[in-house]
Design a protein that fits this description.
This protein is mostly helical. It has 2 domains: 80 residues, no CATH class; 65 residues, Winged helix-like DNA-binding domain superfamily/Winged helix DNA-binding domain (Arc Repressor Mutant, subunit A, Orthogonal Bundle), CATH 1.10.10. Helices cover 74% and strands 0% of the residues. The longest helix is centred in the first third of the chain and has 28 residues. The mean pLDDT is 83. Keywords: DNA-binding, Membrane, Transcription, Transcription regulation, Transmembrane, Transmembrane helix. Pfam families: GerE. This is Response regulator transcription factor. It comes from Ohtaekwangia kribbensis.
Amino acid sequence: MRSTELYLSYVNEQDMMHFLKTVFHRYRHIGAYGLSIAVLVFLLKWLQWNFLIVDNSLDIYIGLIAVLFTVLGIWIALQLTRGRKADVVTVHQVQIVEAEPFRVDQVELEKLKLTTREYEVLQLMVKGHSNAEIAESLFLSLSTIKTHASNLFVKMDVTSRTKAIEKAKRLRITA
């Protein structure tokens, strides 16, 4: 820009500022009136809001509590159902291959050195019979069956019927 253009833009700015000052000075009462109206409207709205709160405070508190419990209920429901997965059932075809018939491992049976009666008691234990049922089926007294069971536990180096049955199946001396 040239220096004359700068001078003219400066003059135009000065004229514009002078014009605005004159307008504001001449019509300042209109500006004051508009500002006072705005303050009064704000004051009235504020008072209306306060009276609304005071008059209906119980309703507002009940409504806020209802909203709070609704949100809390939704959150709890989401927490409880988030981790659940639908059960999926899958169907597979299984081919059953006939196993070869069970064979008693005679070597293991001979290592234990069980008598015939002790072996019979063990076989009935594996089938799930109680001492009384074993005594009845072998035509022996209950104390005799308990003696045979005790001797059986010592020879098999176990402390209970369950362990004796498990060891017998593992050694393949009973089915």
